[in-house]
Input
Amino acid sequence: MARELRIEISDEAYEALQHAAAAKHVAAEDYAGQVLHADLTRARFLDGARLAVAEHADAFAARYGRPAAGGTEAA
Output
């Protein structure tokens, strides 16, 4: 089911939205919906990833070890 959401944005933000939508050949309202949906999907993915890391970090470290000091260098 689709829902309608009414928001207020500045004139400058709306102008930028119109330009971005025109580049994608879609209406500004449709583009805003696509961007919002993608952002929410990304946020849900990252939340899930954080939960997975929190749940499995100790078991992973027990099996494969912990990173060396600094932890940013590849082997």
User: Anything to note?
Assistant: The chain has a mean pLDDT of 91. Helices lie at 11-24, 28-64. Residues 22-64 form one domain.
